[in-house]
Amino acid sequence: MRERRGILFHPEELDESWIERLEEAHIDTLGLHPVGGAAADRSLEEAVRRHLLPENVRLREALGRRGVAVEYEAHAMAWLLPRSLFDVKPEWFRMDETGARRADFNLCVSNQDALEYLAARAEQLARLLETGQERYFFWLDDGRDLRCHCPRCRELSAGDQQLLAVNAMLRGIRRYKSGASLAYLAYVDTITAPEKIAPARGVFLEYAPFDRDSHAPLFDPKSEKNAAQARSIGALLEFFGREGSQVLEYWMDNSRFSGWKKPPKELILDEDVMRGDVRAYREMGFENITSFGCYLGADYRALWGEPPVRRYGEILREGGREHAHP
Ligand SMILES: [Zn+2]
Fold this sequence. Notes:
With 326 residues, this protein is α/β, with parallel strands linked by helices. The chain is built from 13 helices and ten strands.
């Protein structure tokens, strides 16, 4: 079993300097994360364009030689199911609570044609973003209360609805790569385990406690926010299993700490919180641990100097099994 240590940042923040920085920090997985939000489809399209540029091919190859796997982690639904289809296929889109179909978020997961289209598009995206890896992270739209309320979907939780979409996407991706796996992102209102839908083989848990307080340990019972985020972890691990399980944390997420607005603020890594969290995650049996690390690109370094990536990597290793049993 491989125990990954990873960091995610925006594709446009990747430059030559990261090759040495990641190697020195013993980080072996880089997740390229196109900006989410309302323009997620455009930023993913831009990532696809960038992916093919010779300088980016060269950068990925250089990272590969240092043992760093490159993957993409993106809110992909608006790209996979373009909103422009609404005019011809309104029934593919979600129904809001008033009974109106809307081309705002996600889809109607009870519509088999929509799921088949989604599978074909996910296959296409996997082909476009070939990285030599077999793990995929095509997330649904970013936000809260984005599920379908049609009569057939109504009884399904956000997690169950997401899992139906994930199963369909993986079916498509496996036409391209038979050994592919795909993340179920436990995040915001999908942070509770699904109940009615079973995961297809190859679906793994990615746990991202977005609503946590980053300045208190996740398992600190005095933090109500964190207790609410941590409550479902046991059930999630039980439901999806520990194989391939991954934490996606915010310890290094300078876009979060900067309020998602440039210029970036100075990132102070809360080492004590992170150390305790890493230990707890390892004890629970998570295989891989990653964190967002956006807003640490060239503009950050011009303002604040070297970001604490090496320290981040050290703390990840302190909590790792390979460190405990050399
Ligand atoms: Zn529906």
